[in-house]
Amino acid sequence: MRTQHRTIAAILCATLFAASAHGQQHSILFTGQELLNRMTSSPLWALGYVAGVADGAAGITICIPPNTVTVGQMVDMVKQTLENVPSERHARADVYVEYTLSRRWPCPKKGQSL
């Protein structure tokens, strides 16, 4: 569990550093905590959010084979990740979605196939 916390923290730091290194300022539309709250209060909103992030990263960092998982299952996976890192939930929600799904379904490196 501790290793997972460190890994998530490292990815969050790298993401934030990369954004600042390019001189870009990204506003946080939704934090991990807000996403976790909405998973309970607005489950359809959470389904749409997770599906949107997954679609946006499809073929780039997330490569989910067809007919292997439902959006509801993806939401459950992201929720579990968020529940395991209470001290890090202030970070961007999309980072948690992409982190969770890309760990389970990474895209092959160039020159490799699924």
Compact description:
It is built from 5 helices and no strands. The chain is mainly α and 114 residues long. Helix 2 (32-41) packs across helix 5 and helix 4 packs across helix 5.
Q: How would you portray this structure in words?
A:
Helix 2 packs across helix 3 (43-57). It is built from five helices and no strands. Helix content is 61%, strand content 0%. It has a single domain, classed as Orthogonal Bundle (10k-s Protein, Hypothetical Protein A, Chain A). It has 114 residues and is mainly α. Mean pLDDT is 83; it is low at 9-24.
Strand and helix layout:
Elements: H1 2-21, H2 32-41, H3 43-57, H4 71-83, H5 93-104
Structural domain tally: 1
Separate helix tally: 5
Gross geometry: globular
User: Per CATH, what is the topology?
Assistant: 10k-s Protein, Hypothetical Protein A, Chain A
Number of strands: 0
CATH class: Mainly Alpha
**Structural class by SSE content:** mainly alpha
Say what oligomer this is. Answer: single chain
How far is it from the N-terminal to the C-terminal residue, by CA? 29 Å
Extract low-pLDDT stretches: 9-24
Mean pLDDT: 83
Helical proportion?
55-70%
Label the CATH architecture: Orthogonal Bundle
Strand content: under 5%
Major beta sheet, specifics? none
SSE order: HHHHH
Radius of gyration: 14 Å
